[in-house]
Design brief:
Layout: H1 4-27, H2 35-46, E1 50-51, H3 52-59, H4 63-75, E2 79-84, E3 87-95, H5 97-118, H6 123-140
Antiparallel strand pairs: 1-3, 2-3
Helix pairs in contact: 1-5, 3-4
């Protein structure tokens, strides 16, 4: 059996390849959205009732940095700020239809780029990869120790 450090090095190298494939897909999109702004859009797509302080906490940045990111996204038509109906002092952050379209197109580009790589693998290797990724996903989730789960969607 291989040493765990050798396995870790192989995983790290493979992840770098994976990130490269995903990054090329992101850069091929027009307009190109910077990674920090894309992170905001992705977070908001999964957290619909988010305000600025919750976003800043999730991004691990100060509120003023989160606000500047939102300023840029709002200026490009990807984000709207609206009063929270429960508390008029709060502002809720909402994705625009253009942002949702951008995220869908990015997801499609990423999946197409991954499919292109996966086509070069045999069906048996692809099946092995899915099993290994599912096992890694379960092992990486400390709350699911011993439980079987599928891959979390990105």
């Amino acid at each position: 059996m291989e040493r765990l450090t050798d396995v870790a090095a192989a995983v790290e190298s493979t992840v770098e390849s994976l990130v490269g494939v995903l990054e090329r897909a992101r850069l091929a999109q027009s307009p190109v959205v910077p990674p920090a702004q894309l992170r905001v859009l992705t977070f908001l797509s999964h957290n619909q009732h988010t305000n600025m302080s919750r976003l800043a906490e999730a991004l691990d940045v100060v509120a003023s940095s989160a606000s500047r990111l939102c300023d840029r996204l709002e200026a490009t038509g990807l984000l709207r700020r609206v009063p929270d109906p429960r508390d008029r002092r709060e502002v809720r952050l909402l994705l625009t239809p253009a942002a949702r379209t951008l995220l869908e197109e990015l997801r499609d580009r990423r999946r197409a780029a991954l499919a292109e790589v996966l086509e070069r693998m045999s069906p048996a290797r692809r099946a092995d990869l899915v099993v290994a990724l599912e096992a890694f996903d379960v092992a990486a989730d400390p709350g699911a120790a011993g439980g079987e789960q599928g891959l979390r969607s990105a």
